[in-house]
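Render non-specific serine/threonine protein kinase in 3D.
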Amino acid sequence: MTATKALNKPLDLDNIRSVTYNVNTVIGTGSYGTIVYKGKFGERDVAVKRVLYDSSDRLHAINEIDVLKTCDAHKNVVRYFGSKQEQIFVLIVLELCDMTLTKWVNDKSIIDVRPLEILKCVTTGLSWLHHQKIVHRDLKPENILLTRRPVKVKIADFGLSRRVLDGKSFYFYNRLLCTQGWMAPEILEHVLQLEDVRKCKFTYESDVFALGLVYYYVLTDGKHPFGEPYKSQVNIIEGIVMTTPKDVVHACSKNLYFIKLMIAKDPKSRPSCTTLLSCPIFWSTNRLSHINPL
């Protein structure tokens, strides 16, 4: 679907009625006036995402609802309950989670879960999206959510997600809103050079690059494989990786081998999510013990 057709498409809302929220209970914010509140859907606690319904964000609301209706059946994708229009806003009613991955990395006492289990869940969820021919395009710790009882890991925020058009890629239509420091080099080059964004190609591989950044972030308790924020973008463009084994505080430092493949400058060198799920990084201790050393 082209951007023009999408903007002219009526917003397919569920017009659910039993939704309430308190403007004083903000649990998250996004770009262009998007706010997430804690609310109620009937008797259920939910997250209510309020998106400004104007020409600039109309396509984001359309795509987010479309993606969620397609993919929320998967256990590692945030659940969608419905949507409605309220004055100049669209309300998207979502599963309420306890915290972002960012908060969990800073305080692991609230939810007891192994770092590798989180990464496996995120990889499984992203693999599901890719099998549904969807690229997330904004994977980062703030868009990965955790629940406490029971422990669950969910990929969230599909405002920038798109369906793959030609079996491989999606060309961005208008503006780039992906988070700095979490973009693949092939995307970042177009952004920094201010080239025609229609040439900017998002792929499954660009999602895997962001996933590799998340892996390193989790296993190092918050570090970035391309260094501090003020120089990470330049390092991403130039392929200067700042990873060191001593930074890895969870699991085996040899897992850096897989992370380096995921964040390789050449997209063709990056493994698929399906391949990652079969790698030794997720093998059990018992299985690893049966491998004969060279």
